[in-house]
Design a protein that fits this description.
single chain, 46% helix, 13% strand, 2 domains, Rossmann fold, DNA polymerase, domain 1, alpha/beta
Length: 228
Amino acid sequence: MIPQFDYKGVIFDFNGTLFWDSEKHLEAWRDYSTKLRGTPFSDEEMYKYMFGRTNEDIITYALGKTPDKELVKSLADEKEALYRDMCRNDMKNTRLAKGAVEYFDYLLNRGIKIAIATMSEKPNVDFYIEQFNLLKWFKKENIIYSDGTIPGKPAPDIFIKAAQSLGLSPNECIIYEDALSGLESARNSGAGKVIAVASMHDKEYYQNLDTVDYVINNFDELLWLAQN
């Protein structure tokens, strides 16, 4: 059973949590890491240094030094355009996670505030808003993204900012995440509960992490628990 507490808000990571696109990011960053350093990122590097980080963090890691801002923007824009094309060319799988829409409705019908906290940058966020009709459920000011001022995860800043956008403290919120750095970020924020979404790994991968209170396979599971 999911741990219960008197929560007022729910904050969702996006990539790998609401949109299971991690494989596309893996493929795109493997291509770009080869371009940047001559070898692709390993899976271990991806999980440890890529997911939940800013593009600047990732490019700095790949190059082994801090690049100038213009180079970061050029490389990041090129990689993200490739990623969006991959999404458009795979519309069958470019959809929200199973049960997510029903869960949004469930929360809003009960007066629970909801927000998104993603380290994606504005061009991708604009794509998500249009592609998934996110403004049907989320106010634009409650979609918090990487705008160049927020440190990458595991820093807690983005979840704190998302909670503040709802007029809440993190300890009044449940946070849903899939990435190791994101789960650490959620815990560091002081979240009331941190729930891992097993989008790329099985539940056992997360169950012994001290950053996680509970693990789900998908959002249908939450609706089933709420109704039983």
